[in-house]
Amino acid sequence: MALEELQRVERDSVMQTYARNPVEFVRGQGTRLWDDEGNEYLDFLAGISVTQVGHGHPALLRAVSEQAGRLMHVGNLFYTEPGIRLAERLARSSLGGKVFLCNSGAEAVECAIKLCRRHRPQGEFVVLEGGFHGRTMGALSATPQEDKQSPFAPLVPGFRAVPRDDPQALAEAVTDHTAAVVAEVVQGESGIHPLAPELLAAAREACHRRGALLVLDEIQCGMGRTGTLWAWQQAGVQPDVMTVAKGLAGGLPIGACVAAPEQAELFRRGDHGSTFAGGPLVTAAANAVLDVVDDAAFLRSVVDKGERLAAGLRALGLEVRGAGLMLAFETGDGPALARRLLGEQRLVVNATGPDTVRLLPPLTVSEEEIDEAVRRVGATLR
């Protein structure tokens, strides 16, 4: 189907919630994408931190193909090995407790909210300005962005937002009635803003003092994206609950809510569930991605490549922020620059707001591809 026909069908048949770029991608390999006319692109968005090991990684393809040939779905009334093994690996690599597998980041946040309400019934939540946790009603209530919330009010009550750069304000907001503090270690959708270690430490201390839980959202910044398996490991602040999704299965829909041992038994049978969650196909994929990413040498390479990308962008005179291969730079018109990079340079990035361009390449990106991306950004800026 030609692009123009695809656009017509999309206008007629798909709810208009996305501002799509006029490109149809039909194939991918590594850090490269090809459109329907055969043009080649450098992918520095990775499906918004999803294709963590690139397109067509052989280990991921092999795991999905073999599992699809054996068994795709039976539901959670029975045992299947890939999901239970994945839960064990996620718990061991992070908080050491137990895991609820789900289908998306928003679902992982919903699970975390319910878990915290089990911990402190009717408790309230403290969230950070600029945070983004999803678009379902509970996750949206934890996302203090007026343009996203106001069309759907009234939201779930009991959420209070504080500045993302004020440890004292955060500490004062946590009371004996607080169920949890919920925060991204690196705020993604608001433009790649790493939280200061001092703020995370203040959240940890306040939650400990008041008996609240600390929930850290690793949906975009986790799975090796910042150079450690989980971004909170760099800050040295361990949460009580962690949410994961996006890059976990390398392109298939999955999420997880991980609880530390002290919170691992809060749910009772029937408290939570999902038809598709933890199915053998997506969890086989996630195990294959973990085999690649959860490796010390691989994670060191993410740090090195992130530094190379940041240095290249700074050499162009850009102000860069972020960690590992989760970077952004400020510019006068972010959406316009992102469109020009796509159309003129065939470099896939995106804008988060009016003045920020975000780069999230696959973690398997090569140094040569990083240098080429910097060259393309520089050519457009000139």
Description:
The structure is a single chain. With 382 residues, the protein is α/β, with parallel strands linked by helices. It has two domains: 3-57 and 295-381, Alpha-Beta Complex (Aspartate Aminotransferase, domain 1), CATH 3.90.1150.10; 71-293, Type I PLP-dependent aspartate aminotransferase-like (Major domain) (Aspartate Aminotransferase, domain 2). The chain contains 14 helices and 17 strands. The protein has helices spanning 3-13, 46-49, 58-70, 81-93, 105-119, 137-141, 146-149, 167-173, 197-210, 232-235, 280-293, 296-315, 334-345, 367-381, and strands at 25-29, 32-35, 40-43, 98-102, 124-128, 159-162, 178-184, 186-187, 193-194, 213-217, 241-244, 255-259, 320-323, 326-330, 347-348, 350-351, 356-359. It has a seven-stranded mixed β-sheet with strand order 4-12-11-10-7-5-6, with helices on both faces. It has a four-stranded mixed β-sheet with strand order 1-2-3-15. It has a four-stranded antiparallel β-sheet with strand order 13-14-17-16, covered by helices on one side.
